[in-house]
Write a structure and sequence with these properties.
This protein is of the alpha+beta class. 21% of the residues lie in helices and 43% in strands. The protein contains six helices and 23 strands. This is Stage IV sporulation protein.
Length: 374
């Protein structure tokens, strides 16, 4: 049997009453003024809704009539109300985060000049890379990089990163250089001038053809002057520097006694009027303009001849320092000696001979003409 209307609000409780005296219990509740709604009788089980404030009185009656009361999930109870609206809300709560995780919510450009950022943003908008698109519709990173580098030769590299629903473009600008004769040369690749292990790139144009920590042989293309955009190829030319590590083995022979001149103590000479400084002066010390017409100060140093004998105790330190300075004089200014090691040394009475191994890092890139067929 069913009675009356539903009791609304959050202060209602859905109950299930079982026992042999459910009918007497129901009549006693009604006589006590407890409001019951949506009553359903199913054999020995009686189900109905009451207000939460009536629960103390209802429990007293339960003890009197010795019936069992259980809170029940039902259409109108506060434990679970499976109305269509709540079902939809639960489904949205569960599936909305999953749906949102497959979307791009933010697209931005970090780094570079403001004008370049605007051009990249326009490219992204033109190609449909904007917020609220599925992640699967975003083009491949290499495709975005090639398109941007073809459109803007001032970029040396483009990195694309995605964190959750945020897509960020990081343009890396090529270092600015002045006009030079090299800019008037036809486009070319950059090739390795010797066998080396690539350490870093400083490209103003072109595309890396190898990764850092890759061993290349002499003549290998390390930076391509041809940029591929989808199925099309564009000759832009490669320019810049590619640094690599390589070993140089040097055989040497030097006197066992090295003689050199070392500067002695400083001496200063003060001249008044038109007295000229002596010919042995090392440099003139500048004076304030109001004193220069009347005084002059010069500095001189007396050189002292010295010599050092190369022995087994000090030989390795002296040999490496002398050969390292000599080697650096033959390399490019930005070259560095990263490590050195004496492989073999032989001491005679008046000569020292041996072999030294140097690890050098410098620009190994040279221009290589692009074949006409490419």
């Amino acid at each position: 049997m069913r009675t009356g209307k539903r009791i609304g609000g959050r202060d209602t409780v859905r109950l299930a009453v079982t026992g042999s005296r459910t009918d007497a219990f129901f009549s006693a509740c009604a006589a006590s003024g407890i409001r019951m709604r949506d009553v359903v009788k199913d054999g020995e089980r009686l189900r109905f809704s009451v207000r939460r404030k009536d629960m103390p009185a209802l429990r007293k009656l339960r003890r009197t009539y010795r019936v069992r009361i259980a809170l029940q999930a039902g259409r109108y109870g506060v434990i679970l109300d499976l109305t269509p609206v709540r079902i939809i809300a639960v489904l949205l709560f569960l599936f909305a985060p999953l749906a949102c995780s497959g979307m791009i919510w933010s697209v931005g450009v970090e780094g570079g000049k403001p004008e370049r950022q605007e051009r990249i943003s326009a490219y992204l908008e033109k190609n449909g890379i904007r917020p609220f698109i599925p992640i699967g519709s975003v083009p491949d990173e290499s495709e975005i990089r090639n398109d941007l580098m073809v459109a803007d030769p001032g970029l040396s590299w483009v990195r694309v990163s995605r964190q959750g629903g945020r897509l960020t473009i990081h343009p890396i600008e090529a270092p600015e250089t002045g006009e030079s004769a090299e800019e008037k040369l036809p486009p070319a690749h950059l090739a390795a001038s010797k066998r080396a292990v690539i350490t870093r790139f400083e490209l103003s144009s072109g595309v890396r053809n190898v990764l850092p920590n890759t061993t290349v042989e002499k003549g290998d293309i390390v930076a391509s002057g041809i940029v591929t955009q989808r199925e099309d190829s564009h000759v832009t030319g490669a320019a810049g520097k590619v640094y690599g590590n390589y070993y140089v083995e040097t055989r040497f022979e030097m006197p066992a006694v090295i003689r050199y001149s070392a500067p002695g103590e400083r001496a200063y000479r003060l001249s008044v009027g038109s007295d000229a400084a002596g010919g042995d002066s090392w440099r003139e010390i500048p004076l304030p303009s109001f004193l220069a017409p009347f005084l002059s100060v010069s500095e001189s140093r007396d050189g002292s001849a010295r010599e050092v004998k190369i022995t087994e105790e000090n030989g390795e330190r002296i040999i490496l320092s002398v050969l390292k300075e000599k080697l650096l004089g033959t390399l490019d200014p930005d070259a560095t000696v990263k490590d050195e090691k004496v492989l073999r040394v032989h001491y005679d009475n008046d000569k020292v001979k041996g072999t030294v191994l140097f690890l050098i890092n410098e620009n190994i890139a040279v221009r290589k003409q692009i074949p006409q067929g490419d």
